[in-house]
Specification:
Layout lengths: L3 H8 L3 H16 L5 E2 L11 H13 L2 H4 L9 H15 L8 E4 L1 H13 L5 E5 L6 H6 L4 E5 L10 H7 L4 E7 L11 H18 L4 E5 L22 E6 H4 L8 E4 L7 H14 L7 H9 L7 H17 L12 E5 L5 H10 L2 E2 L1 E2 L8 E5 L4 H18 L2
Helix pairs in contact: 3-12, 5-12, 6-11, 13-15
Bound molecules: pyridoxal-5'-phosphate.
The site of pyridoxal-5'-phosphate has 13 residues, from helix 6.
């Protein structure tokens, strides 16, 4: 009875979620502490104390009918103004509240912007490996997701292939840095070259190609790594941001889109995004969360926690003979599978109660993703299990 395209979606249903469910099943049998579940990017660092304090004070101070009422579809003006000022102070931009649209997390923001931009049959280009849900989000609006193959040496974008794949049908390019699943931060030189290519191709095709930068991991970087702010490199850039990871609030569903004035037809696009927020059924981003994040724009998660996890897991696995690029951001390791079919490797790992997600879920077979937003103990206890797993493959 269900729609044909939903049948397909259900059949391809998220490999990540499937692993998460498997984790719960194994935990029921062996106990949670004996399952090494690296499947889901659910932050385990608690939200900063300031978030709780902000929640209490918002509830105390704000008039309930306003606080819990509908807002304009774009969100509370004063919240958007606060975010615009914060971005301007950080990046030297000149945004106003008009450029900010509050969204239901990054996922909500991406759906809003794709709904606003895509005509059926138009293309969105992305670089493999990429967040598994991108294909569904693009398909939601009749768009076609075209992927550029991965450079498995560095996991930086392959720009020659990118240039060759741009066409007059390309409406948008969707990138994610720091990247899920590799943890790689796209370098400034790559961003500059990407921008040059886009400028050139826009002229050649006489079209507008929007660059959508999906940035839920912007602040999750190690060792002072800089993440270029893309609106400064390419005028037709739209940024999608989320507090899911930066403040550990994934269940609260709060983020925003930035649509700068420099973007082609920005006024129309801003209006379209507000309408899309409404008609996709979000109506507006959660009001309590809007007020809370506006009071917490300077807050950061405890990055040192993830950094220790990264170092211990990376050092432990590479010593055992596994290979992977050392991530500069986010909280994922993308490890080369010792056998070509990484699903076989994931199945074997389950025997040691280690759960990982096959790279094919991210458009990059032959690799597995480990989300290290877990307790430090989980990592320490998992390493002897990885040693046993390594013995099956690497000796
Ligand atoms: N984009 C990327 C790259 C992600 O990794 C995620 C979540 O893991 C999302 C978007 C969705 O995030 P949100 O919870 O803000 O909707």
């Amino acid at each position: 009875m269900i729609a044909e395209n939903m049948k397909q979606m259900v059949a391809n249903s998220s490999a990540i979620r499937a692993m998460f469910e498997e984790g719960n099943r194994l935990a029921g049998i062996y106990g949670k502490e004996n399952v090494y579940d690296f499947s889901l990017g659910n932050p385990n660092v608690p939200a900063p104390e300031a978030v709780k304090a902000a929640a209490f004070s918002v509830l105390e101070e704000e008039e309930p009918t306003v606080l819990h009422g509908y807002t304009t579809n774009s969100g509370y003006p004063e919240v958007r103004e606060r975010i615009a000022c914060h971005l301007n102070a950080q990046f030297g931009t000149a945004f106003t509240k008009e450029n900010i649209i509050m969204t239901v997390g990054a996922a909500g923001g991406l759906n809003v912007i794709l709904k606003s931009l895509l005509n059926p049959g138009e293309e969105v280009l992305t670089f493999a490996p990429y967040f598994a849900e991108y294909r569904a989000y693009v398909n939601n609006y009749g768009g076609i997701l075209t992927e550029v193959s991965p450079d498995t040496e560095t996991f930086q974008p392959k720009l020659e292939e990118f240039e060759a794949k741009l066409s007059p049908r390309t409406k948008a390019v969707l990138i994610n840095t720091p990247n899920n699943p590799t943890g790689v931060v796209y370098s400034e030189s790559v961003i500059k070259r990407l921008a040059e290519i886009l400028e050139r191709k826009q002229k050649e095709f006489s079209t507008t190609i929007y660059l959508i930068s999906d940035e839920p991991y912007r602040e999750l970087v190690y060792g002072g790594t800089q993440v270029p702010y893309l609106t400064k490199y390419y005028a037709n850039t739209i940024v999608g941001y989320s507090y899911s990871k930066s403040l550990s609030l994934p269940g609260e569903r709060i983020g925003y889109l930035v649509i700068p004035d420099e973007v082609k037809d920005s006024r129309e696009l801003i209006m379209a995004a507000a309408v899309a927020t409404r008609i996709l059924g979000f109506v507006n981003a959660p009001t309590l969360q809007q007020k809370i994040v506006a009071r917490c724009v300077e807050e950061r998660t405890d990055i040192s926690y993830y950094e220790r996890n990264r170092n211990t897991l990376y050092d432990g696995l590479t010593k055992l003979g596994f290979s992977c690029v050392k991530p500069e951001g986010a909280f994922y390791l993308f490890v080369k599978s010792p056998v070509p079919d990484e699903k076989v490797f994931c199945e074997t790992a389950k025997q040691y109660r280690i759960l990982m997600v096959p790279g094919s879920a991210f458009g990059c077979g032959g690799y597995v993703r480990l989300a290290y937003c877990v307790s430090y103990e989980t990592i320490c206890n998992a390493l002897p299990q990885f040693e046993k797993l390594a013995k099956e493959y690497l000796t």
